[in-house]
Amino acid sequence: MRNNRGYQPRVEKKDAHRINNNIRVPEVRLVGDNVEPGIFKTSEALKMADELELDLVEISPNAEPPVCKIIDYGKFLYEQKRRDKELKAKSTQITVKEIRFGPQTDEHDYEFKKKNAVKFLQDGAKLKAFVFFKGRSIIYKEQGQILLLRLAQDLEEFGKVEALPVLEGKRMIMYIAPKKKGK
């Protein structure tokens, strides 16, 4: 937001943690490697941090008394960002791709859908293959089961069956998970 003189007012960015003189409680609980753990007066803890040429950082403000550490705040933020980035990299999203068959799917359609299923499994997605029975086609449920079991056998080298075909209402569903790479 600019004012009428054409310059932007300086906005102080708020730190995620209270540090040094921003800690406004009478006592704090100190933890960490370079200090004797215990409850200290805030002024005493600030002196200790100053002697070590480090910062007093409030780690857990909701505790009674608040928990603080004597550490280099810049290094602490860097480590925290790096840890968060590693956790984000480790967590992977599992996508589920669906392939739908009819109980009397012909050979060409089957091969086309199988090719797509192979692609999905190689990309690391789970596969939900199902046969949808319309109207009276439910009488062909054995054909649907045979079709899904054939698919499972054809995809054996790309994925493993998590759940065998199960009839749920008008659908017979089977799940196939991708094989881990390197196996």
Descriptive overview:
The strands form two sheets. Strands 2-1-4-3 form a four-stranded mixed β-sheet. Strands 5-6-8-7 form a four-stranded mixed β-sheet, with helices on one face. The chain is rod-shaped, with a radius of gyration of 31 Å. It has helices spanning 42-51, 73-90, 107-122, 141-154; strands spanning 27-31, 38-41, 55-60, 67-71, 96-101, 126-132, 159-168, 171-178. The chain has four helices and eight strands. It is 32% helix and 28% strand. The chain has 183 residues and is of the alpha/beta class. It starts with 26 loop residues before the first strand and ends in a 5-residue tail after the last strand. The mean pLDDT is 83. 19% of the residues are buried.
How many beta strands in the DSSP annotation? 8
Helix-strand topology string? EEHEEHEHEHEE
Output the number of helix runs. Answer: 4
Rg is 31 Å
**Spatial order of the strands in the main sheet?**
2-1-4-3
Q: Give the strand content.
A: 25-35%
| Overall mean confidence score, pLDDT | 83
Low confidence ranges: none
Helix/strand/pairing category = alpha/beta
From the spread of the alpha carbons, the general shape counts as: rod-shaped
Distance between the amino and carboxyl termini? 58 Å
Q: Main beta sheet: strand number and arrangement? A: 4 strands, mixed
Specify the helix fraction band: 25-40%
Features:
183 residues; alpha/beta; 4-stranded mixed β-sheet; 4 helices; 28% strand; rod-shaped
